[in-house]
Each structure stands twice: as C-alpha cells, then as structure tokens.
Amino acid sequence: MVNRLWQNAPDIQPDCVSDYVAIQAWPWIPSGYQLVEQSLKALIAARQGTPLTEVEKGHHLAKLFGRLDSGDKRDLSHAFESFVGLHDYITVRTIGEFLDSVGRGYTQWRYMLLDGAEGIPPNHIGSLLEIANAAISRLRSCLDDKPVTFPTVMQRIRVNIDSDIGHACNRLNRGDEQPGELERRYENLREEVLKNDSLRLAIAAHLANTDNPRLGTQPRPNPWSLTLPELPPAAEVLVGIWKRSSDRKNLLAYFRKPAVQHPRVGP
C-alpha cells in the first residue's frame, strides 16, 4: 500500500532550503524505516523459530541485517545492488553500507517536524521500499516453505516491458491484419522502446507527470516545464499502463537513461 501511494506521488523536489526537502520526504521515510525494521525482525523470528518479542529491540537496521542468515543476506543484497544499478545517483552501493549510513535515524526522522531537520541522516525512499519488499518475499518463502519469487527491479522491468508491449500491440490490433503482422509490430515497437533515445525521453517525460488515470489531474512537478512531447499511439498505450505500475518511478529512471548507458533488458 505504501509503495502504491509512493509510485503515484510527485517526486521529492530539490530546494535551496534543505528543511523543505526533508518535509517533502517526511511522510515516506518513517514508514519506510518501519517496513524495513518489521520485515527484518519478522524474518529473523521466522528463521530462528522464536517469538517476535525475543528479537532484538531498537531500530538499528544494519544490526538487524547482520543477524539474517546467509541466504537472506545474499538475496537482499542482490535486490539492492540491482536497484542502485538502476538509480546510479545513489552513492552507497551495498545494502550493508546503506543500512549503516541511515543507521538509527528512524527516531530523528519521525520527530523531524518537531525537532528540525538538522543532523538527520540522508535516506532514499525507494531503497527502503525495495529492501522491505525483498525481505517480505523471503519471509513469505520461509513461512510457506516455497521458493523465493521476488524478482529484482531490472528483472521486473524486463518482464513488464515485454508483456506490456504485447498488450499494447493487441489493443491496437485492427482485426484484419495479415499473418505475421502482429509479430512484426511487436518487434518494431520493442526495438523502438529499447533503443530509440528520443522516444525513451518522451516516455520518461510522460511518466514524470503525475497525472494518473485513477487520481485525475495532478499538479505538474515543474510548472516551468515545456509541453509534454507527443507520443505515437502505441507508446501512449504503454505510458497509460506504466503510470499505473507499482514500478512507475523505476520505469522513469530506466527511460531517462540512453539505451547505450543502461543495463541490458531482454533475452
């Protein structure tokens, strides 16, 4: 639920007043801390077969991560590395460093509106949500005794792009096409989406706009931005799908990168 709300919300906007930036992030950061903390504690309790009340008290996320078993650490690390590979502006490159750097900042963030933003540790909302999602997938696997099914962000993008291009092609099918025409349209659209940098940037511009079919017209993130570029019909269908995605902001980061600079997507 928190992730869905975050995906539909405007991004945090830079500002010369650092307190204002922190205020924008405040609704999300304490919730992200709680999601990571509670999912790690529940995973530790499930692995050890102990009550939650016996798991270590406090909000030290790095210490909780250190108590995970090796398989859980490996999968959470893999998920985080894929995430920062996509969001390469994040300078902390491993999950251990990230959790150590945000430290025990939950209390400072929670009471930031009362105590002020001075000295609060930097954080990243998407990183917290990605770690929590990965931990919850491990917890479900442990409780259900089933294989882990949480794909990394780049795996999700790969699958979603391929699947959604198929949906877009089917939606634009006129019903009187020659054999093989649908397959050719799919391959052509996929080539454009993956390799045409001008189209990628146009898609990113639309994904950055927080208008949403479920929420109606939203305030523009940047009132000084130019009119949104036009999209071909198939790309409009794709943007409509991706604006409702639980990975909207990850897709935005993906399409903002030139194809040659981006991790490879596809078979």
Can you tell me the overall shape?
A: globular
Q: Indicate the low-confidence ranges by residue numbers.
A: none
Total beta strands: 0
- Total number of helical segments? 14
Order of helices and strands: HHHHHHHHHHHHHH
Q: What's the Cα radius of gyration?
A: 21 Å
Largest sheet: none
Separation of the first and last Cα atoms: 31 Å
Strand content: under 5%
Q: Approximately how much helix is present in the residues?
A: 55-70%
Structural class by helix and strand composition: mainly alpha
What does it look like?
- It is built from 14 helices and no strands.
- With 267 residues, the chain is mainly α.
- The mean pLDDT is 87.
Helix-strand blueprint:
Elements lengths: L1 H6 L10 H8 L3 H20 L12 H6 L3 H17 L8 H8 L3 H5 L1 H4 L9 H20 L8 H19 L9 H15 L1 H12 L24 H11 L4 H9 L11
Helix pairs in contact: 3-9, 5-9, 10-11, 10-13, 12-13, 12-14
Quick summary:
This protein has 267 residues and is mostly helical. The chain is 60% helix and 0% strand.
What keywords describe this structure?
267 residues; mainly alpha; globular
